[in-house]
Structures are given as C-alpha cells and as structure tokens.
Specification:
With 1660 residues, the protein is α+β, with helices and mostly antiparallel strands. Helices cover 30% and strands 24% of the residues. The strands form 13 sheets. The chain has a 19-stranded antiparallel beta sheet. A hairpin with a 4-residue loop joins strand 9 and strand 10.
C-alpha cells in the first residue's frame, strides 16, 4: 500500500471496520481486468462522492478524506491512501459532494464548506478567498443567507450537490439555493458568476426532496403539489396511474409537445451559453489545470452530440431480448425457473439463497471464462444484433460526470419488455450465472456460449427456444450464492455487536435523511424538474433546447420517482417500482437502452427479476444496484467497454473501422460485486465507480437486505396485479351487471383496500431502501415495521376483511368470468403472478392470487426474529424486535384463520343455496357450526315431528323451524345476535339430558344435544363466538365463563315498556344493566343508568309532546323505572321544574317556573309538593300581577296562614281559604295606614275591623268593600289626645307577624331532602355511618361522571372524599378541623351540606328579592336566618355528635396548651363557647347578605336620611374645629401628621388629617358580612385610636367613656359610613349572644351611641 500523504498516524489501524467498506475502480477497463481497489480506513465510510478526477470520502465521526488529482493543491493522491482534510476536523461533517473540479462539505449545523476550482464561482464567495482567486485550496465556509426576511436569517442546509461550474444546496425548509455560472443555476439573472447563494425562485413554494447536478444541467425531485390522500376513496379514473407494460413512457405521452407556458425565454444570454458549450476557448483554464498526459478536450465539433444511429435505421423488437450478459442471475437461476422444476413458472418471492457455504472449484478459471462471456456477446456486428449489440467509439471525455446527492430512496418493480408476453416466458434463460454453488463443467459453459453465438447470427426468434432448452441441464444444477461471504475472518461477531448493530450516530444525520410525509413514511407522489443546457437531450423535455428555469418533466409525472441522478450529459430517475428511466447522451450506452429519441425518459432494459434500488451516473457510464434472486445485492453496469486485443475484437474492428470501442446496450452484471459484501450504495464520477459495502456480521446486514429485497419484490408484485387485473376490471363498463350490485360494492371496497395496502408497501419498501443507504447511522428500532406497527396491522386487517367479504358473497365466480372476457391475451401475464399450482386449463386462481399478500406478515415476523437474534435479550432493541415479531406472527395466524373461515362459509352457502338462506347471507357473516345432521341439536320439549335447524354464525345464532337442511328450506327463522346471547350449561341431572341454556333479552330456551361430545362442541363454539364478538379475540373461554356483564346493542320486539326500542349499553345476564341509551321509534330517548332491566340512578330522558309538537326533557334520578329523586324537568309548555320526585310525581321540595317561553303569565313557585300538587309552605311570585304570596298551600291552592306583598308596597298577612283571603287579617299600606279585620275575598273587607291612619287617628266599626276602590264604614272615629296613654290592645292588633307561618316551619321540605340524602327517614333518625358513606359515594360518583370539573372543584372533592373523624369528643384541637371541613363542604353543591346551603340561599332570595323587598318583612327575614342556623346545626351535630348544644362549651384537650380564638368568643382562656351562629353564620350569611341588608336599609330609611344629612354638614368643618365642637379634650388633639413618611404640622385649616388610620379602619365595616367580622373592625378601630393617642400622653393610660365617646364620635363622622343604622341593626339582631356583655359588646354600644348622637345632633 502506498504511503498516505499528510495522513495522521492514528489513522493506521490493523483491523479495518466491518461496515462502510469502500471499493473503487475505473469504469472503462476490460471486464476481465476489473479489479476493485478496497480502501482501508480505520473508520467506516459513510459516503463517497466522485468528481472528474478526484473523490471525497466521509467517515464515521464526520471526518473527510480526499484522493485523486487535487489540482488546487498540485497533489495527486492515490485512492488507496486518501488524505484527511485536517481543516474540517471538529466540524462533524454529514455530507460531502464532489463537483467537476471542486468540493463541498456540509456540517451537522447546516454550514457549507467549499474548496477547489472557483473560476465560475462554483465555490462561492468564501471568507478567505477573493473574487479574483480561481482556486480555493482549503475548505472555507459559504453562508446561505435569506435576505427576504427581516432581519436576514442564515439558512440551514441539509443537502448539497455540485456540477462542473455550479453548486446547489437544499435547505431544511426544502428550498433550493444555487451559485456558480450558467443557465443550470435556474436563477433569474444574466450576471455570472453568481458568487453568493441565491434562492431558485421558480421552485419557491414547492417541496424539494433531492437535487442532482450534471456537468451543465440540474435535476430536482419535488413532491407533487396535491399529494393523493391514501385514506380517501379514489374515483375509478384516478385509481391507477400506471399503464400496461406494453406502453413505454414515450408512447404514453407525446414527448415533443411540451406546454409553451413552461418554456423559459430564449434570449441573448442563452445563446452565449450554448455557443460556449462547444467552444474550446471556454475550457482554456481547465486544460491548464489538467495533470500532465491527460487530455481535457472532447471530440471536436457538433459530432459529439449527434445521434449514434443512422436516421433511417429501423429498429425491430423481434430479438430485443437476446440473452446477453445482463441476463445473468447471481444465484445461477434463469428468470422463470425454480430450483425444482424447469417449467416456465414464476414464484414471486422464492429463490432466495439457502446455501450459505458454497464451494468455488477452479474459481479463477471460471471467472475468467464468464467475464469473457460477458464482453463477448456485445462485440458482434451491427447487423446481427439490431438495437442491442451496436457498439460506438465516440464518447465525450470532456463531459465528465459530477456528483449527485445520494441517499435518496431506491426500489423498483420488475421491468416488462415491450415484447409479447409469450416470448418473455422463454427469455433470459440461456446463460448461467457467473458463480455456482455446485461444480460447473467448462464444457457446459462453452455450449451455452456457442448456442448464443448461433442465435445471434441466425436472426431467428425460434432460436431463443433452442437456447433455453440447451441451457436447462446446466440451469437445474445452479444454486444461490452464499448469503454470508467468508473472507477467512473467524471470531464471533457477537463481540463486535456494537459495531454491527448499533454504530455511532456521529455521521450522517438529518442531512441524508429521506424525505418523509406527515406520517413518517416517504411520499411517492413526486415530480422531476430539470433545467440547464439540453444539447444532448439531458433535460428530458423532448428537445435539445436549454432551460433557464426549472421545468417539470411531464412524462415522469405519476411514475413514483424516488431518486434522480445526473451524469455529465445524461440523467437517470429511479422509481418506487424499481424501474430506471434514463435520457440524454447515449454515446457510450450509458442509458441502458437504445430507444429513440433520447430527449425523453425511457426505461432501461432490465432482465426479469432484477429490481434496481440505487443508481448513480458518471461521465459516460451508469451504475445500478439491484436485487437479484439471492439476498446479496448485485451491480449492473451501463456504458463503455474497452476491448481486449483478441482476434475477435480485431474482426469487429475490421467490420466497423470507425468503432474502436464497444459498449453495452443494456445493463450488464458485474460479477465482481459478489466479492464486495453487501453493497449499500453506489457512486460514479468521471471514469470511476465506487461502492460502499458492509460485512454480514451475525447475519444482521443480510437480514436487513433480505427484508428490504422482499418488500421491494412484494411491491412490484402488487403493482403488477393492480395494473394487470384490478384496474382493467374496475374500469370495465360491464362490471356492475356482471357482479351484481352488492358484489360490485364489495369489489370496489376490495380494490380500494388493495390500493391502500399497495401504497403502504411502496412507501415502506422505499423507507427500507433509505435505511440500507444509512444502515450505520440508523437505530434498528426506527424500522417502520416497529414504529408504524398499528398502521400495518390495520391495513392488513382491512384488506383481509374486504377479501373475505367478497369471497363469501360468491364474487370470485363472476369475477373470474369477467376477467377472462376483459383481459384476453393478458391472462398469460397474470398467470405468471400466480403462486399456487394452476388447474389443467391454466386458468388464474384469483382467490389464491389475492390472498397471497397475507403471507408477507409471516415474512415480517421472520425478518424481525432474525434481527432480534443479533442482540442480547436484555437490550431495548431485542425487546422491541421480539414484540414486533410476536405481533406480526399473531396477526398472520389470525388472518389465516379468517381466510379459512371465509372459505368454509362460501362452501356452506354454496351447498345451502336458496331464496330462504339468501336472507341470512351477509358479507361480514361467517359460519361457525350448524346442526343439520341426525338431530344433533334440538329444542327442549320439541315435538316429535318438528324440525329444528340451528346455525351458529360469528355474529348470530339462527334458529329455523320446519327446516329441511339438505334442501335449505324452512318456514320460519329467528336470529339471536351473539352480542346479547348468554350461554350457560345445564348441570346434568337424573333426566340425562345434555342441555345448554340460552338466555336472550326477551326470551330464554334450552338446547338439547344428542351426545356429551356434541354438547361440549356447541358449548365451546358458542362461548368462543360470543367471546370474539365481544372483543375477546375468540381464543376460547371456559364453558359458562363468557362475560355475564357486557356492552351491546339490541332492538326490542316484544310487548312491554321497551317495545320497538333500540338499546345500546350495559347488560347483565340478559337484562339491561349499567349505563346505556334507549331510543323508542316515537322519539323518546333515555340515556343513563339502568338496573335489572329498569331505569335506576341518574339519567336523561327526552319525551316528545305530540299536542304541542315540542319535546319534554328530564335530567335527574330514577328508581325502578320511574322518576325518583332530585332532577330537572322541562315541559313542552315552557315550564321548568327543578326539585324532588317520588314515583314519577313531584314530591318534596321543588321550584316551578313558567319559563321564558310563556308570555301571557310569568310566575315562579318554590316550596313543598305532595303527590304532584303544591301542599305545605311555599312562595309564589306572580311576576305578571306584581304580587308575592308567602304561606301555606293545599292541593295547588292558597290555604292557611300567609303573607302577601305587592309591588305598590301593600302588605297583608292573614288566613286564606281556597285561594282567597278569608277570616281575620292585617293589611298595611305603604304610608303606614293599617287595617285589622275580617276579609271575605282578595282585598275585600267584610265585617268588624279597626283602621289606623298614619297620623294616629283610628276608625273602628263595620267595614265592607274592596280596599283599592273604597270602603263603606259604620263605626267610630277616634283622634287620640296628645297626653293620652298608649293603647296597648290596639297596638297588639297592628303588630306584624301574628298570622305569619313560624320561621321554623317554613322550609322543612328542604331540610327533609338533606336528611334524605344522608340516608335518614326523618330529622335525626338514621345511622350516622350510613350518612357518611352516602356522602362519600355521592362525591365519588360525581367525580367519575363529571369529567369537566375545574381543577379547584376536583381538589375540593378530593378533600371531601375522605371521611373525617366524627365519633370522638370535640375539643379545641379538632374543632378547627370540623370548621374547615364544613367550609369545604359548603363550597360544592355535590355535598349534601353544600346542596343545603345553595338551596337555602335560593329560597331566601326567591322570598325577599323583587316584590319581597318590603321593609315589613325584615323581622320575618331575620327570624328565618336564625331558624336556618338552628336546623342546620342539628344536621351538623348529627354528623359530629361530639359537638355540644348551642351555646355549649368545649374544653381544651388534656395536657395541651390552650389556643386563643380570634373571634373572642372564649368565656375563659381554657374553653371555647360554640354556638350555631359562630360556627355556621360565616358559611351562610355572606350569600344571604344582599337581600337581608336591603331590608335593613329600607327599615332604617328615615333615620338614615337624618343621619346622613348631619354627617355631610359636620364634615364641612376643619379637624380642630370639629374636635372642639364635639368636646374632645385638647390633649388628644394631634399636632403632627405623617404624609408619605414626612411629618407635617396640623394647622387650624387642616381637614381629614387627624386619626386617619382609625377612620380608614372603621370604613372597612361596610366590606364585611357577618356580625363577628363587623365587631372585629370596631375593635381594630379602637386599637388604632389608642395607638394614635398614646404618644401624646405619659405613663399608663386608660380610657374613660367621657374621653372616649367624643373622640370616637369624631372618627365615626369622618368615616362617612353610608347606611350605618342598617349596619348597627344587623349586628344587634344577629350578634352572638355570648359576647353581648363582653368587651366587644361595650365597643358596639359605643358605636350605636355615636349613631344615635349624630342622628339627634342639633342642626343649629
């Protein structure tokens, strides 16, 4: 090995890597002398790129090596010893690209580095190089900046390609950038060179996947704008893009008619480019740079680009497939021959190499002979091999190849020649492969050679058959090549597992990643765009014109191109179906075909069975990487061949003196590829070829290659079936009449599922090819089979179902006839795709053909198992692979079972055909078993002469009566869906019957089997079928164990509540049970819980009202099929009732509102109901009349004591009878006129009474008439004297509240409902533990059924779910815990106590808001609050029995320090006094405060007016004046005040400057709700006052009332509290009696005194 110049010493490593092995050779040498040179580096090579005379290598770790003629450094480096690019160390390069004479590298961060020749600006304007530099000797960064955005942003590049005078970069946003010179840039400019990268605007908005650069043209692979949605149903005309194999690309579309709109303008600039293309002067500088002895010129004149064939030459297709060297198979098989049978059959996925330890006898001699054979057949004269054996000498040495961007997806489908299919079956089988696993006689090879020569000379198509026949004996002895080549390397691969299976990720990253769509798989919807010079037709647009801007190649649309490659003057495209399209210069046969014209893409001529999955193009040659019939990939070569100096070659020269060189006319197999290992990618450039290969360590590489090869083969097979069979049948006009309407729909569904499967496999095989290109940088767990497992399983399941459904309905019989009519001559082609043995007639077995794809699941499982064997059991990779293997194998077995079920069902229907059975025939239905033989199963107690036939399907049990199974005749049948079928074995008893009990929703019956075996068979089948239909997979449950509880749908047919109703929901042993939905035909629906066949629990019901034509709805609780519990009912009339129900009737507490829809009368009732009628206490607000009734009811009528208030301020209290005022009552008008007497009707007085006027005058006697219209009086008028004592009796008559319902009796229905929710029959009668359990169950249920709860609500419910300690004695230690629990309970209406608080607030507001805001209701409102507290406290004491009576004392816990209470309700330091007001008022009063305080304000209105008038007047005085007026001693007058920390003196004019903190504190009394909080504000005010006074006095200081009252009076005046009288009255009425006589009581008295003092202050 030559010494490596400038190569660091650490690169020398005695053990070369097992991955990324590079082999490189010169392409133009004789095939016998091809000897690839293996480049040994210490690290695996990730990528190679070849230029004209140099190359670049990227190794693992991101290091870059160069070799060849490095003209910019005047170095010549041999390929065997590449030199490290030291300046790129640490940059972590992920891509390299070699141009004609310059280089590019791409870092992991997306930065470009360029070096080499820069005469045309192809290296850009680097940081170090000036514009005048024609070379850049060291890699320099080139910035790609998007100046269109603000601020300009640096673009991250992910791919790079270089031509001869230009460079292209692909950004992470899939946009293209270009720099250099020439129209191949695609830029809108005429100024060259372009030094800085510019965006190719013509491709803006398009998704560019990959780019490639030729010498002077560019190619881009672009995703189609409107990618086909694989999940939608495609119309028939778009269902199949591909055409019949008889069509070539040129036949499909007119190649020369290109849309004018796509043309670029041809101007002066373009002309210059075209003339410069052939001008020697343009290449002057390059000639100067060439090393000595190497010519840079080309063949002179336009002859270089002329067509290689005479214009008048006619090409025949008769012998286009003559057996030349390209037909060789690496495993020794001919295309259509198996190892066991010489008949012309094709086994699509067979023929894989099995012999891993082949022996090569006389290997060198055999190689030499076969290599001669490869070249020999191509040297015959023009006339003997028209079209295939023409050899040309002219080639364009100047137009050398440049690099394209590798790592784009590769796989293709088998190519079908343009010959009739009959000749294909005998094609390509005359010559054996170059290697064989068994000894090959040289005589046999010579015989083959002679036969071939004879065939070439005779020009007869019949000779093809003779060649095949003579070669059969040799072919039958061929075996496949070894899957694992042995190179003398012993040692376990397992110790190199890290290298073999999980290489370092440093290397290729996202730069080389395949282009993927949203679901992570590559897109096949692509287009190829080209631009630049087109003199050789390399643009593919059907002409030789140049294009200044990118233009789409129309003929490649829809061909699923996945990679493009550009040679110097030719272009190639690789499709997902493993086809290669080529166009452009064909001077040396580099296109792989001789089709004309070369200006449009044509398919390369590939032998059958070869599937190309990587392509690369050089100066005058192309290299293809393909699958043969063994696991190891093979190399195919297209292009120039130099001839050895032999007699035969001399003869050839004499015949054609102007042809000094030969070339292949179709891709030729390179036998040397078998020595290289498993090739992962190919690369061409200049006259060189390079491949990257991996060694098969532990079988890992072979397993990956085998998986990818199988998948590519599978996709080609699917595509052919789709093109040959499904598309013609689907598009045929007579498909519907032939198949019938049901089968036509099923056939279309089958076609669509087949297309979805085909598209998935195509994308998957593409993805696997990507994986192989970068197998070193990929994690095996990223295989699509593992990342998209669910998607694969779903697609296969869907396809199997569609296929089975079509088969069950007998569609294949009609389809077979249709296919014979439709396909005609293509039947033979279709036969080749069949995998099973055909019948004698040779007909295609469509069933086997379309079931064939299911076997691929087993292949997936097998491949994943092979890969898993390469890893330790504990690794994540092994577990992931093993899990995937199990999933695919499980599905494979499952689908095979489903296939068998479909076949059995089809045979069943075939043998039981008839009109009666057709009713039961459904696509998804499969037969499980039936009882047609010897009365094997019959109905218990059936008559002797009755016939019963039971058929068990996968979805139903069918019972037919009067059946004659052999004739499929029955009189009646009943279908029992398995989802609602319960099976139970009947225990054998003395009767000796082998019985099975069947339970259905509406009936039950018993089946009797003839034998125990028959019983067990039916029991097992029934249980398995039920288990499978319920989602258990049908793996079999033990008898009687199939789910008693399940979810299913059923439609009731029998009489009863559920007649004709459709139910979906839970079941238990044949009865509806659990949550479900019931729908009746008349529109009734119920959604909610059911129990034992009846509605029970919470449910929602909609009931249509036919009279009003509107639905009624109920949301609430049910019991035993009736509305029972709390709920909300919306009537069709618009009324809404929310409250309690009992047995379907309104009963208990409830609120009925007329609703917004009723405009004539609007009202609300809230109160007690008994058996659907208002009975008991209730409040009725007649909004229309402006009256509110608060009292007792009976049978929906006012009856008993009550109060009525009106919107005009009239107040009435008295007794009612049958909706009318009757008996004694008291009526008070708004102006304090009052009447007490007998009433006989509403507002009608009739009888004795006393009328009191507002001024105190009195009228007593007999009254009659209506209050509002006038009263007739017979009586005495009395005007009291000024000194007359107060008449107590009369005052008693006019006392409010004498006819009012006592506060404790008003809302008993609300408290009873709360007791009921706690599980008690009445107040205090029930189990405490039951009450707590009910609370816990209520809260847990609410959490489960209310997923939309807020976070705070969920937190509260979680706290309340735990039952607190409630049995122990209450001490000061745990009293706070009870108080906190009650606070949380009242925060949510789900808790019974929270519901109680919410409901009490509702009834209170309903009573005292609106018309109820009458000051005469104040006493009742206060008493009602106190009654609430008392009854609420009794419930709390029931839950916490340790609490004392109201006003009781709880001691401190023993040996515990006492805790002082903030609310000063401690009688002593060691005890706490508990009252219902101190414990519960803080919970209740804040929500009752608005209506209650409004009543206080109305009551104190007159006094408040006097108070406020004096407050305003007194506040006009300055501070000192007011203090003096109030009699405050001067020693208490503040002298200084503090404003923002500064002291300022108080002067006589100062206002609002004294005692500011005390004033502000007192003002807070209006912001509090409870009396205890208001008293705390008063206390703080006194403390603030004391703090301000203290600094003015010396020594200890104690307040005396004479000093305190004037000072506090000042604070009250300055506080300006509105409604102070209402505040005082509220505190006085509701204050805790335990603190009335303490310190707080004294402070409150002081405040009250101040209020009275201000009120009566003299105004003068």
């Amino acid at each position: 090995m030559e010494k490596r110049e400038e190569s660091p010493a650490y690169e020398q490593d005695p053990a070369p890597p097992e991955r990324g092995l590079l082999n490189i050779w010169q392409s133009a040498g004789p095939s016998e002398q091809l000897c690839p040179e293996r480049v040994l580096l210490s690290r695996p090579v990730l990528q190679a790129s070849l230029g004209e005379h140099h190359g670049l290598l990227l190794t693992q770790g991101g290091q870059v090596y160069s070799f060849g003629e490095l003209l910019w450094r005047d170095l010549s480096i041999p390929a065997s010893a590449p030199v490290l690019e030291v300046s790129l160390l640490g940059k972590t390069v992920v891509r390299v690209a070699a141009g004609g004479f310059h280089c590019g590298a791409l870092s992991e961060q997306g930065t470009i580095y360029m070096w080499g020749e820069n005469t045309a600006g192809q290296c850009g304007l680097t940081d170090r190089g000036a514009v005048t530099n024609i070379t850049v000797s060291e890699p320099c960064p080139v910035s790609v900046v998007d100046s269109e955005v603000v601020p300009p942003a640096v673009v991250r590049v992910v791919d790079l390609a270089c031509g001869r005078e230009h460079s292209l970069a692909l950004s992470s946003q899939n946009e293209l950038w270009a720099w250099g010179s020439g129209c191949q840039l695609g830029l809108v400019t005429n100024t060259f060179p372009v030094w800085r990268p510019q965006k190719v605007e013509h491709l803006a908005g398009r998704h560019v996947i990959q780019v490639a650069c030729g010498a002077y043209h560019s190619l881009a692979l672009v995703r189609s704008l409107a990618p086909q949605n694989y999940n939608t149903r495609n119309p028939p005309e778009k269902w199949e893009r591909g055409q019949s194999p008889h069509y070539s690309v040129t036949e499909r579309e007119e190649p020369f008619t290109v849309d004018d709109a796509h043309y670029c303008p041809l101007g002066v600039e373009l002309t210059e480019v075209l003339t410069g293309e052939t001008s020697p002067g343009r290449r002057g500088p390059r000639r100067r740079l060439q090393p000595g002895g190497r010519s840079a010129g080309s063949s002179s004149g336009p002859g270089a680009s002329s067509c290689p064939f005479p214009k008048d030459r006619k090409f025949t297709t008769k012998q286009e497939n003559l057996p030349v060297s390209a037909n060789l198979k690496p495993d020794g098989h001919a295309d259509h021959l198996t190892q066991t049978d010489s008949s012309p059959k094709s086994h699509p996925l067979s023929g894989w190499g099995a012999n891993k330890n082949s022996v090569f006898p006389d290997e060198m001699e055999l190689q030499n002979l076969l290599q001669k054979l490869s070249g020999h057949s191509l040297e015959t004269q023009h006339t003997t091999g028209p079209g295939d054996t023409d050899s040309l000498s002219s080639h364009t040495s100047d137009d050398s190849c440049v690099s394209s961007t590798p790592s784009v997806d590769l796989f293709t489908s088998s190519y079908k020649d343009e010959l009739p299919i009959k000749s294909q079956t005998h094609n390509n089988s005359g010559v054996s492969g170059p290697y064989s696993s068994s000894p090959v006689c040289l005589e046999e090879v010579q015989l083959c050679l002679e036969a071939e020569n004879k065939a070439l000379q005779e020009q007869k198509s019949s000779s093809l058959t003779n060649i095949n026949q003579k070669g059969k004996t040799a072919i039958n002895r061929r075996r496949s090549l070894p899957g694992t080549p042995t190179h003398g390397r012993n040692g376990s691969p397992r110790r190199r597992r890290h290298c073999a299976c999980r290489p370092s990720s440093a290397g290729r990253t996202q730069a080389a990643a395949p282009e993927e769509t949203g679901d992570g798989l590559p897109s096949l919807e692509t287009e190829v765009w080209s631009w630049g010079r087109g003199s050789e037709g390399q643009l593919g647009h059907g002409d030789q014109l140049a294009r200044l801007q990118p233009l789409c190649i129309k003929s490649l649309k829809g061909e699923e191109v996945i990679k493009v490659a550009a040679g110097s003057h030719h272009s190639m495209a690789l499709s997902a179906q493993c086809q290669v399209y080529s166009w452009g210069s064909n001077m040396c046969g580099q296109l792989g075909h001789v089709n004309s014209p070369v200006t449009v893409p044509h398919k390369a001529k590939l032998s059958n069975g070869l599937r190309v999955w990587d392509v690369s193009a050089g100066q005058s040659h192309s290299l293809l990487l393909a699958d043969g019939e063994c696991v190891q990939p093979i190399l195919l070569y297209c292009g120039q061949h130099q001839e050895p100096t032999s007699a035969q070659s001399q003869r050839s020269c004499r015949r054609l003196p102007n042809r000094v060189e030969s070339y292949t006319v179709r891709p030729t197999l390179l036998p040397l590829c078998m020595e290289m290992g498993y090739i992962s990618s190919v690369c061409c450039g200049g006259q060189s070829c390079a491949v990257l290969a991996d060694q098969n360590v532990m079988g890992f590489i072979a397993a990956i290659h085998e998986l990818a090869s199988r998948e590519r083969h599978f996709y080609c097979w699917l595509s052919n079936v789709r093109k040959l069979l499904l598309t013609p049948l689907r598009n045929r006009e007579g498909v519907c009449p032939s198949l019938g309407k049901p089968c036509t729909h099923l056939f279309f569904s089958l076609c669509e599922s087949f297309v979805r499967l085909s598209v998935l496999i195509g994308r998957h095989s593409t993805s696997l090819s990507y994986f192989l290109h970068d197998v070193q940088g990929r994690d095996v767990t990223s295989l699509p089979l593992l990342t998209h497992t669910e998607h694969f399983l779903d697609i296969y399941k869907e396809y199997c179902s569609a296929l089975g459904n079509f088969q069950v309905m007998g569609g294949f019989q009609s389809l077979h006839k249709l296919s014979i009519e439709c396909l005609g001559s293509q039947q033979t082609m279709l036969t080749q795709l069949c995998v099973s043995d055909q019948s004698a007639s040779g007909d295609v077995d469509l069933v086997s053909l379309l079931y064939w794809p299911l076997q691929q699941l087993h292949q997936y499982s097998r491949a994943l198992l092979k890969l898993a064997a390469c890893y330790d059991v504990l690794t994540i990779e092994y577990q992931s692979l093993h899990q995937g293997c199990s999933q695919y194998e499980s599905l494979s077995l499952s689908l095979l079972r489903r296939k068998k079920e479909a076949e059995t069902t089809f045979l069943f229907w075939k043998s039981h055909s008839g009109k009666n059975t057709e009713v039961l025939r459904l696509p998804q239905r499969r037969v499980v078993c039936e009882s047609s033989g010897n009365r094997s199963l019959t109905l218990q107690n059936a008559g002797r002469f009755s016939n019963h036939w039971f058929i068990l399907f996968n979805d139903a049990l069918v019972h037919t009566q009067g059946a004659i199974p052999s004739q499929s005749f029955f009189s009646t049948h009943h279908i029992y869906p398995l989802t609602c079928l319960w099976v139970k074995p009947v225990t054998e008893n003395s009767s000796g019957l082998y019985a099975i009990k069947i339970t259905c929703p509406e009936e039950s019956f018993t089946l009797v089997a003839s034998t125990p075996q028959e019983k067990n068979k039916w029991l097992r089948s029934l249980n398995q079928a039920v288990d499978q239909v319920l989602g258990g997979g049908g793996k079999g449950s033990s008898p009687g164990m199939t789910a008693m509880s399940r979810t299913a749908s059923y439609t009731f047919t029998g009489e009863g509540r559920f007649k004709d109703a459709q139910y979906t929901g839970g079941w238990l042993a044949g009865r509806v049970h659990g949550r479900g939905t019931m729908k009746w035909p008349d529109g009734r629906t119920y959604t909610g819980n059911l129990k034992s066949g009846l509605e029970d629990g919470y449910g929602e019901c909609i009931i249509p009202n036919k009279v009003l034509n509107k639905p009624e709805s109920y949301h609430g609780h049910w019991r035993d099929g009736k509305i029972h519990g709390f709920g909300k009912y919306k009537y069709a009339s618009g009324e809404v009732y929310e409250g309690c129900f009992c047995d379907g009737q309104r009963h208990g507490y409830g609120m009925l509102s007329s609703g917004k829809q009723v405009r004539t009368s609007s009202s609300v009732f809230i109160g007690q109901w008994v058996q659907d009628r208002k009975t008991g206490y209730g409040v009725y607000d007649d909004i229309t009349r402006g009256e509110k009734y608060m009292g007792l009811w009976q049978d929906d009528q006012w009856h008993g004591s009550a109060v009525v208030v009106t919107q005009y301020g009239v107040y009435y209290e008295g007794t009612f009878k049958e909706n009318r005022m009757s008996g004694p009552g008291l009526l008070v008008s708004d102006d304090d006129t009052a009447f007490h007497g007998e009433f006989s009707d509403d507002w009608n007085v009739n009888g004795k009474g006393v009328l009191s006027l507002a001024n105190g005058d009195c009228l007593e006697g007999l009254f009659s008439g209506e209050w509002s219209t006038g009263l007739k009086v017979v009586g005495t008028y009395t005007k009291p004297a000024a000194d007359e004592p107060e008449n107590r009796d009369r005052n008693r008559l006019f006392r409010l509240g004498q006819y009012v319902v006592p506060a404790g009796q008003r809302w008993s229905c609300v408290f009873n409902e709360c007791w009921s929710r706690l599980g008690c029959d009445a107040a205090g009668r029930g189990e405490r533990t039951t009450a707590w359990e009910n609370i816990a169950v209520t809260i847990t249920t609410a959490q489960r059924h209310s997923p939309d709860l807020s976070r705070s609500q969920s937190k509260v419910l979680e706290c309340l779910e735990f039952i607190p300690q409630h049995g122990e004695p209450v001490t000061t230690a745990n009293y706070d815990n009870i108080r906190r629990y009650l606070i949380k309970a009242c925060e949510t209406p789900i808790h019974p106590l929270g519901w109680l608080v919410e409901t009490l607030v509702t009834v209170y507001r309903m009573t005292y808001v609106g018309v109820g805001s009458n000051r005469r209701l104040l006493r009742q409102a206060v008493q009602e609050v106190q009654a609430y507290l008392t009854q609420y406290y009794s419930i709390v004491r029931f839950l916490f029995p340790g609490l004392p009576d109201d006003g009781g004392v709880i001691p401190d816990p023993p040996a515990s320090p006492s805790k002082s209470r903030h609310n000063s309700n401690t009688a002593e330091q060691s005890v706490v006094v508990v009252s219902c007001s101190s414990l519960l008022l803080p919970l209740l009063l804040p929500q009752l405060y608005p209506p209650l305080f409004t009543l206080y304000c109305l009551q104190e209105e007159q006094q408040e007016a006097q108070y406020w008038e004096r407050i305003l007047r007194l506040n006009r005085q300055p501070d000192q004046s007011l203090l003096s007026f109030l009699g405050v001693q001067e020693k208490f007058w503040p002298v200084w005040m503090s404003i923002l920390g500064e002291k300022k003196q108080i002067v006589s004019s100062s206002k609002d400057a004294c005692f500011v903190s005390a004033v502000e504190t007192l003002q807070q009394i209006s912001t509090t709700f409870t009396p205890s909080d208001k008293l705390l504000v008063i206390q703080k005010t006194f403390e603030e006052l004391t703090q301000e006074v203290k600094p003015m006095l010396e020594g200890d200081f104690l307040w005396c009332m004479d000093d305190l009252l004037p000072l506090f009076l000042y604070v009250v005046i300055r506080a300006r509290i509105r409604n102070l009288g209402a505040e005082v009255s509220l505190i006085e009425d509701l204050m805790d009696p335990n603190i009335q006589h303490g310190e707080m009581g004294l402070m409150f008295t002081t405040l009250k005194a101040c209020y009275i003092q201000i009120q009566h202050e003299s105004t003068t």
